[in-house]
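re: ur question from earlier - yeah i can do the single chain one, its not a big deal. heres the input i used so u can compare w yours
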Amino acid sequence: LKLYASMLMLRSGIPFIYYGDELGMFGENKSGDNFVEDSEVRMPMPFKDSTIDLKKMFYSKVVDNVTGEVNNLGANVLKDWPTYKEDNPVVEEEILDENSLYNTYKSLIAFRSEHPAIYKGTMSLVKDFTNGTIYKMNYNDETLYIAFNFGVNKTTLNNLSSSLDLEFSVNEVKVEGSNLVLPARGACVFKTNEINLEFETTVETNS
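and the output i got, formated as C-alpha cells:
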C-alpha cells in the first residue's frame, strides 16, 4: 500500500485519494447476495476505536428508489463485517505511528508540494530493471530520479552512480556507495549527476 501511494504521488498530474485509502481500509460493494451500490466501500472512518459502532453508523433501513424495496443495510453490514474493528486501522493510532500508511501519505504529499518537478515535470523512462524501474522528472532547473522495486525481494542496483543523494524514500531504501539498495516494495527519489545505464542488478531471494 505504501508502494501504491508512492506510485500515485511521485508523478505528474492530479492524484486522487479515495476515502479511506490513507488508512488502508478495505470494502466491498456487495452485502451478502444483494447488491447495495457501493455502501460497503464507504465504510465509516474509524477515527477512534471507542466510536466504532456499526449499529449507530448506518441507517437501519434503506429504501430502493426504483423498486421501493426496503433493505436493512445496517444488519447486512454487521453480518458481513463481523471483524470490522480488526480489519481496519484507527486514525488515532495511525497518527501516532510515524511508520503508518497515514503518515506515509502525509510525507509524500508534503514532498510533492515542495518539488515542482514532481507535479509539473516531464516524465521520461531511464531504465527498467528486474522487478522495477527508474524514471526521471524534469522541470526548469530541477531533475529528480524515482526508483521503484515492485518485487517481494530486496534488489540492489550496483554501480548505479558515483553521486547518489537520497531525497525521499519509502520502506527504508538505502544508499551504499555507488549502489542503491531497494527493499521489497521500496520506492525512492534521488538526485545524481549521471547514471550508469549498464549498472548490474542483484536480487536477494528469500530462502
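The mean pLDDT is 84. not sure if urs matches, ping me
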